[in-house]
């Protein structure tokens, strides 16, 4: 998997499991990616309507765009639902953050045409490859 190519070709990112809590990894990664200025970033969380003035959407289907990359901050038991939503909206990449690893989700995602990245931090990889 060519992570650098994925990061260079990506224009829109949906962060699923976005948190308003600055101590959470999803919040830190959102602010980092926003600061790079390279991506349009959309936040997804059904329990929050906005984070620091940025709208938060309940589901991927509610986004005003099709995200190129879906960055996932959800527990493992929610990965099937996120995968199904990602396929349904036509995303290209499913990126499972550190600690998320599920070979069946990866196999099903790849069979549906998604590129699947597992157990990696997009912030760390972006800083290493493009920073």
Automatic annotation (TrEMBL):
InterPro entries listed in its UniProt record: CoA-bd (IPR003781), NAD(P)-bd_dom_sf (IPR036291)
Residues of the CoA-binding domain: 6-100
Coiled coil stretches, renumbered: none
Protein name, as recorded: CoA-binding protein
The organism's taxonomic lineage, starting at the top: Bacteria, Bacillati, Actinomycetota, Actinomycetes, Mycobacteriales
């Amino acid at each position: 998997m060519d992570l650098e190519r994925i990061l260079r070709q990506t224009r829109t990112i949906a962060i699923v499991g976005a948190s308003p809590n600055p101590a959470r990894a999803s919040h830190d990664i959102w602010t980092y990616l926003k600061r790079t200025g390279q991506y349009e970033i959309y936040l997804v969380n059904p329990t929050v309507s906005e984070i620091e003035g940025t709208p938060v959407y309940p589901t991927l289907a509610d986004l005003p765009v099709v995200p190129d990359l879906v960055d996932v901050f959800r527990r493992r038991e929610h990965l099937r639902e996120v995968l199904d939503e990602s396929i349904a909206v036509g995303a290209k990449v499913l990126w499972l953050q550190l600690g998320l690893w599920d070979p069946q989700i990866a196999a099903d995602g790849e069979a549906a045409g998604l590129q699947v990245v597992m157990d990696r931090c997009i912030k760390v990889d972006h800083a290493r490859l493009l920073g």
